[in-house]
Each structure stands twice: as structure tokens, then as C-alpha cells.
Amino acid sequence: MQGLGHSQSARTTMDVENIQRRLREFSAAREWNQFHSPKNLSMAMTAEVGELVEIFQWLTEDQSRHLSTADLERVSEELADAQIYLLRIADVLNIALEDAVLEKISLNDEKYPISRAFGSSRKYTDL
Ligand SMILES: [Mg+2]
Q1: Read out DSSP for 56-105?
Q2: How far from 53 is each of 58, 114, 116, CA to CA, in Å?
Q3: What is the 48 CA–ligand 1 centroid distance (Å)?
Q4: In angstroms, what is the span from residue 56 Cα to ligand 1's centroid?
Q5: pLDDT per residue over 85-111, tens digit each?
Q6: Which pTM does this prediction carry?
């Protein structure tokens, strides 16, 4: 399948810094930095996540796992929109996103030890 996010030679890594640089250039060229406060970017990201959720709204669990090609394309676009804003927020706040994500995964590893969390959807406070 071709289209957004479905290149034939699938990349295995995301070059976050390159994408952030492209977004910085995109924004600067349009004099949009004035609008890109963390508050505005967070709200924009939430709106894009809302667009993602809208695709799944009213679908059954099974339908959500077996999307049409058109819906999969829409999901790909909304994920990209949300990711763009996420990367932009991290950039304007000088947050090293990879470090933050890896740190959070380590914290989740501690909060959800396999011995207690295996096969459970409970929150860590209820394990
Ligand atoms: Mg969108």
C-alpha cells in the first residue's frame, strides 16, 4: 500500500531532530512562531488527537482493528498531525524528547512490574 506513512522502504528510526528542524523552518518561513506558544501547541495537539478519536468513534473493538484503506490513511494523517505538534512543543520548550520518553518507560517499568501487571489493565495504584 502506498500513501502517507506507507512507504515501501519502511524506516526503522525517526530522526526527531531533523523533523524538528524542518518544522522550525516551516514555522519561521511563515512568521508562525508568534502563534507557537506551548499553550497553543498543546491545544492544537489535543484537537488533532480529537480528529484521530473521531475516526474510531462508534466503531466496535473489532472494526477498529480492521480499518479500511481509506480510514487507515486518515489515521496516518492524524497521527502525523499530533506528532508534529508533539515534536514542536518539545522543541519550543527545549525538552529532549527521546530522553524524556526513555525515562518515562523506565518509570513505567517500575510502576508496572511484570509480576503484578501481567495480563492486567489495572492502574498501578490498584495492582
Ligand atoms: Mg488533522
Answers
A1: HTT--HHHHHS--HHHHHHHHHHHHHHHHHHHHHHHHTT--HHHHHHHHH
A2: 10, 29, 30
A3: 5
A4: 14
A5: 999 999 999 999 999 999 999 999 999
A6: 0.86
